[in-house]
């Protein structure tokens, strides 16, 4: 990159840190830190939600899908639109009222309200583990982008630098800093893709006729996807809208139910079709460029990391100045998700885990400092975890699957089924999450040499185990209580 690009990029990063330190002085309590004082508007929240959900991992991951399967990869985010709108209709009316009435900070506090403290503690542990993994995926996405576009920058150093920036401004600024930076970052990303990335990449590869001649016909078809792939995406992504800690924090942060529902409808439309098609189209253009031999040092397109196609494309085609702007756009997406996931993990650990074992009641000032220290610590661990992983989308979906298979069934039961029982919730969470992780490890990591039926995701089996366990135990305890046994 040219010195001008470096200056643009550094100015952007300093500005993000500046927002964090600005709100550092504004935060006076843990309520300010975790739920922005509960007075945010729908547009700020809506843009923050979609920036968090799509973010860097899906931006880089969507580029990888476009590189390998074409525009059909956009169906992954269609499941995000479905999840957003379903949760707006069914979840928000119940959760918004409870959040404001009982001053909730986190998702597991819903479990403490409907079940008991033991169930809430397990939910907090599952959610924290999942969001630490998700934070790591975003740091890895940023490091991949940085190492591909900045000459001489090693991937491990990129992890440290990118991770440190996200961790610092999140730890000092809290959720309000996260939401405002998300809004800025999302606007920058959309502008960068619409006015810089896609037009220049399209012209650089030679236009539509060249694209059509270079790519296989299925790349330009919306049917180049199997039924089991759509099912796998659906059961992993749709439920996250019902159990995502980042989403509950934003429901609590909204002024009221009406603002929250409006924010969710806005987020759904931005996810699909807007961001979905932008991401996969850029991935497809990267595939065309790689096939044409435009990437220096890459001769075997089939063996290259598909998620690196997009960053390499940007570093290859963008002129001085625009490279810095486009790089800032993609880091906007990455940081907008990393900061939210870090806030979620920190909230779970402080509110749902540490507070369960800490006997003394903390003052608001001490609780705020504890929250900031935990956020810094969790961020450091996430950076370490990212250094051990290679694939962004894989790490994201593993984290999603672990949370969904453990938490989805019990939260639906708590909100919509009067027979729900704490014992059933506890064991369905434990067995559902364990089943998914066990299948993932045995299928991908251990030398057992087998694959799941019909290429189905392990998460499907985890949810089924959770559902069966929940129904059987809930019915058993309900009959036991009504019969006076």
TrEMBL record:
InterPro entries: Na/Glc_symporter_sf (IPR038377), Na/solute_symporter (IPR001734), Na/solute_symporter_CS (IPR018212), Sodium:Solute_Symporter (IPR050277). The keyword Secreted does not apply. The chain crosses the membrane at residues 6-24, 45-67, 73-93, 114-135, 155-179, 186-205, 225-248, 269-290, 310-333, 367-385, 397-417, 424-440, 460-478. It is a multi-pass membrane protein. It comes from the Bacteria. The keyword Repressor does not apply. Keywords: Cell membrane, Membrane, Transmembrane, Transmembrane helix, Transport. Pfam families: SSF. It is found in: Membrane. PROSITE patterns: NA_SOLUT_SYMP_1, NA_SOLUT_SYMP_3. Belongs to the sodium:solute symporter (SSF) (TC 2.A.21) family. PANTHER family: SODIUM-SOLUTE SYMPORTER-RELATED, SODIUM/PROLINE SYMPORTER-RELATED. This is Sodium:solute symporter.
